[in-house]
């Protein structure tokens, strides 16, 4: 047998092993702690080993069970950050995508995969009320935001040929860190990102936005784009899109909407997202609120020619000669990536397996869980809400105890996992619901675990 070749029998045994490991992991999920009792010392000792000269064979798959003891499991009681729950049909789609090993650079390189990604992009665009948008999948919201601002820059202050000139970008103080990162990487410079103050609901103040733009124009600066956020990472705050859009049009600025956390909730509550279709570009994260396994970001945009202006730089060896527009289609002319994996297959499998209604209902249930928690906290004598709850992130605190110490205790107890945020300078405990496995009992456990952790601090 040649190097790296595996017999059909061995392959079949390995595939059985892999699927049986996946099956037993999925069925054991709810019995696992929300966070493993492990340390960096332990994981380093266990997993930093030399690459063996001779292959270990089938035995290596048994490492999976050891690994599962030291990972953060996707249980229904994980409420930290904005972490989707890894829907299993999507995970099986990932496996099959890797089996097919398509390089989704273009239709010529990956015919079915390209048409499937374009179809799935259409579903996502339609789901959020942006049916006329096109776009592509990418690694996550950060990459989508970077690509969107590259398009904004090319549309308003072209830089690809001559190099970047300073332009100004506006976003709320609550903006995700991926925006300052993108501004820095694009050579716009972080000092040219204006962080606009927010109102009491933590939404961008449009009066302050207008004033900042006017001030920049007076000083001879060149405004190029506004980033509105629908679902700020800490609190879920939704910037006032219709008003921001009006300012963007009046000022001839690019309007990018960062919907990495919240955008897909438009499937369930479109009334909260009016104006999305007026954006020039929109980031979404299917690995967040569409429950897909990582990674699965998405950038949608209205004008394909601007994506071409920003990203098309074809070398001769990839030039496509076809009269048929679909066969000539190339993602690399609209995206940062050339080699791209077949991310769309998990969406194709998972979204059709369950159907649109199931996803809409799961998002609605997450929204309900957040309201339920907010009500439990508001009516609890020892706790208080620290921010409004427009979507599914709930920020709160214990009134009289050290909340940082509570958070450490809650995580150590292993029954629920919370993360934290800073709201108006105050340390907040934070629970975020983007999880199809969460039950109402899991939501109740948040309150009882915080109180139990607070009581432990007295001892
Ligand atoms: C509002 C917002 N934008 C962007 C991102 C970045 O997304 P990703 O982690 O997929 O890069 C996040 C992540 O939580 C987010 O909440």
From TrEMBL:
Keywords: Decarboxylase, Lyase, Pyridoxal phosphate. The keyword Lyase applies. The lineage of its organism: Bacteria, Pseudomonadati, Pseudomonadota, Alphaproteobacteria, Hyphomicrobiales. Its cofactor is pyridoxal 5'-phosphate. This is Pyridoxal-dependent decarboxylase. Transmembrane segments: none annotated. It comes from Mesorhizobium helmanticense. One of its GO terms (molecular function) is pyridoxal phosphate binding. The modification N6-(pyridoxal phosphate)lysine is found at residue 288. The keyword Lyase applies. Gene3D superfamilies: Aspartate Aminotransferase, domain 1, Type I PLP-dependent aspartate aminotransferase-like (Major domain). SUPFAM superfamilies: PLP-dependent transferases (SSF53383). One of its GO terms (biological process) is amino acid metabolic process. Belongs to the group II decarboxylase family. It comes from the Bacteria. Pfam families: Pyridoxal_deC.
């Amino acid at each position: 047998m040649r190097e790296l070749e595996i017999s059909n029998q061995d392959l079949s045994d390995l595939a059985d092993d892999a699927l049986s490991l996946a099956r037993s992991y999925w069925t054991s999920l709810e019995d696992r702690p929300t966070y493993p009792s492990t340390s960096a010392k332990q994981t380093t000792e266990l997993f930093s080993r030399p690459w063996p000269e001779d292959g270990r064979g089938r035995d290596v798959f048994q490492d999976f069970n050891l690994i599962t003891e030291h990972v953060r499991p996707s249980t229904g009681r994980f409420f930290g950050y904005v972490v989707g729950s890894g829907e299993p049909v999507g995970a099986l789609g990932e496996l099959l995508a890797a089996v097919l090993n398509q390089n989704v650079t273009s239709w010529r390189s990956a015919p079915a995969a390209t048409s499937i990604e374009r179809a799935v992009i259409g579903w996502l665009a339609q789901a959020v009320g942006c049916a006329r948008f096109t776009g592509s999948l990418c690694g996550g919201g950060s990459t989508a935001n970077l690509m969107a601002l590259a398009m904004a820059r090319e549309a308003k202050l072209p830089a690809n040929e001559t190099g970047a000139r300073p332009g100004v970008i506006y976003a709320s103080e609550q903006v995700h860190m991926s925006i300052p990162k993108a501004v820095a990487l694009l050579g716009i410079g972080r000092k040219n990102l204006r962080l606009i103050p927010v109102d009491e609901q933590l939404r961008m103040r449009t009066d302050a936005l207008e004033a900042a733009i006017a001030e920049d124009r007076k000083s001879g600066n060149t405004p190029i784009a506004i980033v509105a956020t629908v679902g700020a990472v800490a609190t879920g705050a939704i910037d006032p899109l219709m008003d921001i859009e009006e300012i963007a049009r009046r000022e001839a600025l690019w309007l990018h909407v960062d919907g990495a956390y919240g955008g897909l909730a438009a499937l369930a509550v479109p009334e909260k997202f009016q104006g999305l279709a007026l954006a020039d570009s929109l980031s979404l994260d299917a690995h967040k609120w569409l429950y897909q396994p990582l990674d699965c970001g998405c950038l949608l945009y209205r004008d394909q020619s601007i994506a071409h202006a920003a990203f098309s730089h074809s070398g001769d060896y990839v030039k496509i000669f076809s009269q048929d527009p679909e066969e000539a289609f190339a993602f690399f002319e609209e995206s940062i990536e050339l080699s791209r994996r077949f991310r769309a297959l998990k969406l194709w499998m998972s979204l059709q397996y369950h159907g649109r209604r199931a996803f809409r209902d799961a998002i609605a249930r997450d929204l309900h869980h957040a309201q339920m928690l907010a009500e439990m906290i508001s009516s609890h004598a020892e706790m208080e809400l620290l921010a409004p709850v427009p979507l599914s992130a709930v920020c709160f605190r214990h009134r009289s105890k050290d909340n940082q110490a509570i958070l450490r205790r809650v995580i150590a107890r292993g029954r629920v996992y919370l993360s934290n945020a800073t709201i108006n300078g105050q340390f907040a405990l934070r629970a975020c619901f983007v999880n199809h496995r969460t039950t109402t009992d899991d939501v109740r456990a948040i309150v009882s675990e915080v109180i139990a952790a607070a009581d432990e601090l007295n001892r």
